[in-house]
Hints:
Number of helices: 5
Strand order of the largest sheet: 8-1-2-11-10-9
CATH superfamily: CheA-289, Domain 4
Radius of gyration: 18 Å
Number of domains: 1
Structural class: alpha+beta
CATH class: Mainly Beta
Oligomer: single chain
Mean pLDDT: 82
Low-confidence stretches: 16-25
Distance between the termini: 54 Å
Amino acid sequence: MTAFHYLNELDKRFSGESGSVLVNSHSTMRTLHFRVGRYDLLLPLDTSTEVISHLSYSPIPISRSWILGIASRRGQLLTLIDLKNFLFNSDPIKKIGNRRVVASKVGNMFLGFVVDHAVGLMNLQQEAFEDSYPEHWDSNLVDYLSAIYKQDEMYFGICDFQKMLNDERFIEGQKSYN
Protein backbone atom coordinates (compact mmCIF):
# COMPACT_ATOMS: atom_id res chain seq x y z
CA MET A 1 0.00 0.00 0.00
CA THR A 2 1.38 3.42 -0.95
CA ALA A 3 1.43 6.38 1.40
CA PHE A 4 -1.22 8.05 -0.75
CA HIS A 5 -3.59 5.07 -0.44
CA TYR A 6 -2.97 4.85 3.30
CA LEU A 7 -3.82 8.55 3.77
CA ASN A 8 -6.96 8.11 1.67
CA GLU A 9 -8.03 5.19 3.86
CA LEU A 10 -7.44 7.23 7.01
CA ASP A 11 -9.43 10.11 5.53
CA LYS A 12 -12.35 7.81 4.66
CA ARG A 13 -12.28 6.21 8.10
CA PHE A 14 -12.13 9.58 9.89
CA SER A 15 -14.89 11.08 7.76
CA GLY A 16 -17.11 8.07 8.28
CA GLU A 17 -16.67 7.87 12.05
CA SER A 18 -16.54 11.45 13.19
CA GLY A 19 -16.64 13.76 10.21
CA SER A 20 -19.84 15.43 11.34
CA VAL A 21 -20.92 16.93 14.62
CA LEU A 22 -23.49 14.18 15.06
CA VAL A 23 -21.60 10.90 15.02
CA ASN A 24 -24.83 9.15 14.19
CA SER A 25 -28.07 10.97 13.66
CA HIS A 26 -29.61 10.23 17.04
CA SER A 27 -26.97 9.68 19.68
CA THR A 28 -23.81 11.78 19.99
CA MET A 29 -22.78 15.40 19.46
CA ARG A 30 -19.08 16.36 19.60
CA THR A 31 -18.30 19.61 21.41
CA LEU A 32 -15.51 21.72 22.84
CA HIS A 33 -15.83 22.22 26.63
CA PHE A 34 -14.65 25.53 28.11
CA ARG A 35 -15.30 27.71 31.15
CA VAL A 36 -16.33 31.33 31.50
CA GLY A 37 -16.61 32.44 35.10
CA ARG A 38 -18.47 29.76 37.04
CA TYR A 39 -20.18 28.32 33.96
CA ASP A 40 -19.24 25.24 31.95
CA LEU A 41 -20.04 25.85 28.30
CA LEU A 42 -19.92 23.76 25.16
CA LEU A 43 -19.48 24.70 21.53
CA PRO A 44 -20.29 22.22 18.74
CA LEU A 45 -17.10 21.31 16.91
CA ASP A 46 -18.55 22.28 13.55
CA THR A 47 -18.60 25.94 14.67
CA SER A 48 -15.18 26.13 16.33
CA THR A 49 -11.98 26.27 14.35
CA GLU A 50 -9.29 26.05 17.04
CA VAL A 51 -8.23 26.85 20.58
CA ILE A 52 -5.33 29.30 20.76
CA SER A 53 -3.03 29.65 23.77
CA HIS A 54 -0.87 32.61 22.81
CA LEU A 55 -1.97 35.33 20.44
CA SER A 56 -0.65 38.78 19.69
CA TYR A 57 -3.31 41.32 18.89
CA SER A 58 -3.78 45.02 18.30
CA PRO A 59 -6.25 46.89 20.49
CA ILE A 60 -8.99 48.88 18.80
CA PRO A 61 -9.24 52.45 20.06
CA ILE A 62 -12.67 53.79 21.01
CA SER A 63 -14.33 50.38 21.16
CA ARG A 64 -16.49 48.64 23.74
CA SER A 65 -14.64 47.17 26.72
CA TRP A 66 -15.48 43.63 25.59
CA ILE A 67 -13.83 44.10 22.18
CA LEU A 68 -10.17 43.42 22.93
CA GLY A 69 -8.76 43.94 19.46
CA ILE A 70 -7.90 42.32 16.18
CA ALA A 71 -5.40 39.58 15.43
CA SER A 72 -4.24 37.99 12.23
CA ARG A 73 -4.59 34.21 12.30
CA ARG A 74 -3.99 31.92 9.34
CA GLY A 75 -4.58 34.76 6.90
CA GLN A 76 -7.87 35.84 8.51
CA LEU A 77 -8.64 38.83 10.69
CA LEU A 78 -9.93 37.62 14.03
CA THR A 79 -11.93 40.02 16.22
CA LEU A 80 -11.22 39.20 19.87
CA ILE A 81 -14.17 39.28 22.27
CA ASP A 82 -13.81 39.18 26.07
CA LEU A 83 -16.69 36.74 26.58
CA LYS A 84 -16.94 37.19 30.36
CA ASN A 85 -17.10 40.98 30.03
CA PHE A 86 -19.71 40.77 27.26
CA LEU A 87 -21.93 38.26 29.06
CA PHE A 88 -21.66 39.42 32.67
CA ASN A 89 -20.35 42.98 32.45
CA SER A 90 -17.30 41.89 34.49
CA ASP A 91 -14.11 43.90 34.67
CA PRO A 92 -12.43 43.91 31.26
CA ILE A 93 -9.23 41.92 30.98
CA LYS A 94 -6.04 43.84 30.32
CA LYS A 95 -4.27 40.98 28.52
CA ILE A 96 -5.10 37.42 27.54
CA GLY A 97 -2.38 35.88 29.73
CA ASN A 98 -3.25 32.28 30.75
CA ARG A 99 -6.70 32.41 29.20
CA ARG A 100 -7.53 30.71 25.91
CA VAL A 101 -9.06 31.99 22.70
CA VAL A 102 -11.74 29.86 21.07
CA ALA A 103 -11.69 30.79 17.39
CA SER A 104 -15.00 30.40 15.65
CA LYS A 105 -16.50 31.28 12.30
CA VAL A 106 -19.90 32.82 12.94
CA GLY A 107 -21.73 33.76 9.78
CA ASN A 108 -19.11 35.46 7.63
CA MET A 109 -17.04 36.68 10.61
CA PHE A 110 -14.05 35.10 12.32
CA LEU A 111 -14.26 35.76 16.05
CA GLY A 112 -11.96 34.83 18.89
CA PHE A 113 -13.78 34.40 22.19
CA VAL A 114 -11.47 34.80 25.17
CA VAL A 115 -12.47 32.19 27.77
CA ASP A 116 -11.09 31.42 31.21
CA HIS A 117 -10.16 27.83 30.52
CA ALA A 118 -10.43 25.31 27.67
CA VAL A 119 -11.17 21.94 29.25
CA GLY A 120 -11.31 19.54 26.31
CA LEU A 121 -13.68 17.66 24.05
CA MET A 122 -16.99 16.15 25.11
CA ASN A 123 -19.32 13.76 23.34
CA LEU A 124 -22.92 14.48 24.31
CA GLN A 125 -25.62 11.84 24.48
CA GLN A 126 -28.90 13.18 23.15
CA GLU A 127 -30.95 11.71 26.00
CA ALA A 128 -29.10 13.92 28.54
CA PHE A 129 -30.37 17.24 27.13
CA GLU A 130 -32.57 19.18 29.55
CA ASP A 131 -35.86 20.93 28.82
CA SER A 132 -35.17 23.94 31.05
CA TYR A 133 -32.29 26.01 32.35
CA PRO A 134 -31.18 25.81 35.99
CA GLU A 135 -32.79 28.65 37.97
CA HIS A 136 -29.43 29.86 39.29
CA TRP A 137 -28.03 30.50 35.80
CA ASP A 138 -27.59 34.12 34.75
CA SER A 139 -30.24 35.26 32.26
CA ASN A 140 -27.56 37.17 30.28
CA LEU A 141 -25.90 33.84 29.53
CA VAL A 142 -29.09 31.91 28.81
CA ASP A 143 -29.94 34.32 25.97
CA TYR A 144 -26.95 32.98 24.01
CA LEU A 145 -27.50 29.26 24.57
CA SER A 146 -29.28 26.81 22.31
CA ALA A 147 -29.65 24.04 24.92
CA ILE A 148 -28.63 22.71 28.32
CA TYR A 149 -26.85 19.41 28.79
CA LYS A 150 -26.69 17.56 32.11
CA GLN A 151 -24.08 14.97 33.03
CA ASP A 152 -23.41 13.64 36.54
CA GLU A 153 -25.42 16.44 38.21
CA MET A 154 -23.39 19.05 36.29
CA TYR A 155 -24.98 21.46 33.80
CA PHE A 156 -23.37 22.60 30.57
CA GLY A 157 -24.70 25.37 28.33
CA ILE A 158 -24.44 24.86 24.58
CA CYS A 159 -23.38 28.17 23.04
CA ASP A 160 -25.01 29.68 20.00
CA PHE A 161 -22.73 32.54 18.99
CA GLN A 162 -25.04 33.41 16.09
CA LYS A 163 -27.55 34.62 18.73
CA MET A 164 -24.83 36.91 20.05
CA LEU A 165 -24.15 38.38 16.64
CA ASN A 166 -27.84 39.15 16.26
CA ASP A 167 -28.00 40.89 19.65
CA GLU A 168 -28.46 44.67 19.46
CA ARG A 169 -25.64 45.24 21.97
CA PHE A 170 -23.19 43.29 19.80
CA ILE A 171 -24.34 45.06 16.63
CA GLU A 172 -23.88 48.48 18.28
CA GLY A 173 -20.43 47.47 19.54
CA GLN A 174 -19.36 46.51 16.03
CA LYS A 175 -20.44 49.90 14.70
CA SER A 176 -17.95 51.60 17.00
CA TYR A 177 -15.03 50.68 14.81
CA ASN A 178 -16.51 49.83 11.40
